[in-house]
């Protein structure tokens, strides 16, 4: 074999000792060939340095065998874990994954999608159900199948893989109320173009209303879904005489940031301020104190989204998904108000007075 030309699929098949069709299937749908055949083809590919001509393959089959996924951010561990499962599952079906993030900017999402479509993909995975008309219209114009992930709220689209943020937030607020808290603050995300943030606050309000409690407007703040967002919530709510006894956060990142801000300010968690999160990321169980949070099916969302997008690409008729389950995980960051000592109440009062 000379090195003055690129290796071809025929070269791979010849070196592996398999048919051209078997070599093609091993590279396109590796899960559908025998392990021994796959190993021979992979060894030949490595030895020859073979790279498939993606442009030619796409022209011949009208497929790129690439799926694009656009996420709000890559800094939240829940998305990283889900992307990992999404990618691994797509690999099993012979598809590659292209990932981008818009950092919660709606206009950037459509710009990213245009750039992705120009380069050629077979389908798209989107997070949430709240997207601009331009996003859906672009998918329609190019005949791109799509799956909506994470949220079921505000949508009747049959190919949603996720859960109800409203129901999850309702259950968390219910647990908080059952712990004896009536002075409840909420650190939410920005509600514009984010049905998940809107569903969280709606579910929280509904649970409190059912218990005869109002969510005070001045005890609700919209903050970024990161550590700093939680820190800022503590600064706002714990800097006056009128303080909440519990802070419900929209993500674990906000909650962990809030816990750290309390540490800096000498506010004891949960004796002076209980804090809850949402997502149940790995750090939630090891932060001090361990975080009460909502466990969401992060890995399952990635796996099911990959399976459904492949089914849509291949034109299979599939039934609509049902919402996945979430559970409230109670840990030490949420204290029953009945267990709060008089010392804790005195400490909270002194903190409020000192600002």
Describe the structure.
Helix 5 runs parallel beside helix 12 (298-313). By secondary structure, the protein is α/β, with parallel strands linked by helices. It has three domains: 9-52, lambda repressor-like DNA-binding domains (434 Repressor (Amino-terminal Domain), Orthogonal Bundle); 61-163 and 298-323, 3-Layer(aba) Sandwich (Rossmann fold); 165-295 and 329-354, Response regulator (Rossmann fold, 3-Layer(aba) Sandwich). Helix 11 (252-265) links the parallel strand 8 and strand 9 (274-276). The strands form three sheets. It has a five-stranded parallel sheet with strand order 2-1-3-4-5, sandwiched between helices. Residues 340-355 have low confidence and may be disordered. The protein is elongated, with a radius of gyration of 25 Å. Helices cover 46% and strands 14% of the residues. It is built from 13 helices and eleven strands. The chain has helices spanning 9-16, 20-28, 35-48, 54-61, 77-92, 106-119, 133-141, 165-178, 195-210, 227-237, 252-265, 298-313, 342-354, and strands at residues 66-71, 96-101, 123-127, 146-151, 160-163, 184-188, 220-222, 246-249, 274-276, 293-295, 327-329.
């Amino acid at each position: 074999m000379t090195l003055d030309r690129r290796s071809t699929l025929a070269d791979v098949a010849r070196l592996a000792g398999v048919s051209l069709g078997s070599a093609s299937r091993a590279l396109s749908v590796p899960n559908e060939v025998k392990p021994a055949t796959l190993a021979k083809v992979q060894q030949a590919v490595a030895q020859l340095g073979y790279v498939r001509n993606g442009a030619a393959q796409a022209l011949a089959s009208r497929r790129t065998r690439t799926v694009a996924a656009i996420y709000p951010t890559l800094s939240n561990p829940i998305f990283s874990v889900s992307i990992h499962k999404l990618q691994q599952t797509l690999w099993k079906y012979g598809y590659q994954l292209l990932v981008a993030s818009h950092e919660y900017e709606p206009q950037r999402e459509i710009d990213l999608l245009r750039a992705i479509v120009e380069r050629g993909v077979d389908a798209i995975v989107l997070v949430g159900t709240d997207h601009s008309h331009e996003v859906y219209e672009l998918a329609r114009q190019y005949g791109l199948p799509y799956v909506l992930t994470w949220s079921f709220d505000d949508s009747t689209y049959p190919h949603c893989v996720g859960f109800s943020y409203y129901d999850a937030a309702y259950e968390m607020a219910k647990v908080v109320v059952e712990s004896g808290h009536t002075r409840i603050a909420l650190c939410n995300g920005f509600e514009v173009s984010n049905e998940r943030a809107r569903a969280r606050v709606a579910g929280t309000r509904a649970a409190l209303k059912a218990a005869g409690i109002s969510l005070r407007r001045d005890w609700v703040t919209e903050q970024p879904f990161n550590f700093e967002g939680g820190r800022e919530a503590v600064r706002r709510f714990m800097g006056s005489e009128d303080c909440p006894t519990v802070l419900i956060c929209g993500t674990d990142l906000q909650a962990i940031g809030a816990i750290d801000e309390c540490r800096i300010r000498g506010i004891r968690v949960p004796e002076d301020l209980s804090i809850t999160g949402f997502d149940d990321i790995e750090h939630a169980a090891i932060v001090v104190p361990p975080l009460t949070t909502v466990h969401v099916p992060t890995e399952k969302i990635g796996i099911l989204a990959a399976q459904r997008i492949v089914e849509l690409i291949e034109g299979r008729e599939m039934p609509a998904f049902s919402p996945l389950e979430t559970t409230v995980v109670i840990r030490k960051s949420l204290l029953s108000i009945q267990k709060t000592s008089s010392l804790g109440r005195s400490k909270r009062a002194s903190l409020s007075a000192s600002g």
